[in-house]
Structure prediction request, 586 residues.
Amino acid sequence: MNVDKFLFGLYIFMLAAFLGYQVISRVPQLLHTPLMAFTNAISGISLVASLVIAGSDHGLTSAIFGTIAVAAATINVVGGFLITDRMLKMFKKRGGP
Amino acid sequence: MMAPGPFVVAAQAAHEVAAQAAHGVAAQADGETTPRMLLYRVALLVASFLFLLGLRGLSRPETARRGLQYAAVGMLLGVLGTLVHEDIVSYHWIILGLVVGTLIGIPMGLWIPMTKMPERIALSHAFGGLAVALVGLAEYITKGPEMGSFAMAAVTTEALLGSITFTGSLVAFGKLQGLLSGKPQTFVGQNTLNFVLIGAALAGIVTIVIQPDLSPVMFGLAGLGLLLGVLLVMPIGGADMPVVICLLNAYAGLAAAAAGFALDNEVLIICGALDGGSGIILALIMSKAMNRSFYNVLFGAFGSVSATVPGKAAAVREGAPEDAAELLKLAGSVIIVPGYGMAVAQAQHAVRDLANAMAANGTRVRFAVHPVAGRMPGHMNVLLAEANVPYDEVFELEDINSEFAQADAVYVIGANDVVNPAAEDDKTSPIYGMPVLQVWKSATVLFNKRSLASGYAGIDNPVFYRDNTVMVLGDAKKMTEDIGKAMAH
Prediction:
């Protein structure tokens, strides 16, 4: 990785952090637990890295590391989306959904 | 000559894509994007957009589930797109990981009770940290020293932060679950040791960037991260868990962002920034709600001070459930203040039943939730929602604090430090300056507590001794049910 790519990454990080701040600040206290479960689920996107490591042929150690990483990230994705949905389903207003 | 119209440009672009498709292997050799990689990259781009769209949905309860669905579609696209990545040559390890993860993930999503949500979240931070740390180490093993200084710094940071998150979250889980003592675990020189270790970790990162082939340093750093995770969370008491869980969330996110830098992967940078940013924002809200700095939470070993219960045998007025029921029957307006004790006793359904009984009696019932009530942000809101309490009857501190003076009665159930007036008027109190729910301003305070022992922080609560307070001592669930039964008579 060279300096250009690093700076490009920083641009993306900066914009995402700024946008994230704006969006997340608007989440009410009411939904803070679902917010944590939600960001946890989407952070399971680290699957995009672990899948490639588990599937590429670079020796047993990295395959095992990759497979454990795939399993751990999948737990977060599957469990995270299910539990966030379970929570959000419960939030109801008086006299209707 | 006219400039080429948009159709011409589009046709040219399409032609180029087709040409690349025809020469997939050659294009790869030239460092160009093959169709498979194009598909992969576009899938991740769309996924990033859907994640942001989903997060925006969380700003209102009405749109939150729709947002979650957007994000789930994004995740599916991201995973499917990655499966066509051309570095993948075999699928058996992938399938093994996906199957194991799904088999563990489904019960963790469907069957964990809502009262165990802080434990559940702590565990998932541990999994997230583990995944990212292993990705970092595997990257280092496969690409080795040739990856360049910036990527090396990113991979090292990723492995270190991921390991800290992994063990730190496991310790947090152990404390919440009661496997480890919830009291701060401290020893002499603890902070000094932690600072030395953090310094050593930073020195390790610098070393590996300068000398990338020193693999023992790399693995040593991961080990140091595991140790640091334990040492940093052990001294933190149960009542400070909301801040710690948020910070671990932030670490997990930042580790993922570091992975994105190491792999040139934009979606990882974006999700890492969102996850890390969310953790930091929540941690700031929590520490503000406790009027404490991060430093104080992390290194202050709060609650280790011996209890400051005064020696005076101040008189408290104890009441039976029947007394409480009489009071609530006469009240025109009641505010219920839940705390961690409600979660421990799983009393949320009993509380809802009591609230319904009062409402049937013509009483206006509202709920007041302090930002740090419970063990994680929004903990009480989820429990009340589970018990079918409509969210428009649940109020935040700023919105309800002016209402206590007009309330006929307040029922405090399992909360203590968040309703302590010492935070407002006793400068020597450890919680001085923390915003609290002003329950004492109401005509009567019904205070449910297991016993007269002081609260988690070991601080006495002057509300117990006020003339307008009636202590109803006992298990939160049983007491609430007994009050409900007495009201029915």
In short: The mean pLDDT of chain A is 92. Residues 44 and 73 of chain A are 5 Å apart (CA to CA). Chain A touches chain B through 84 residues (CB under 8 Å).
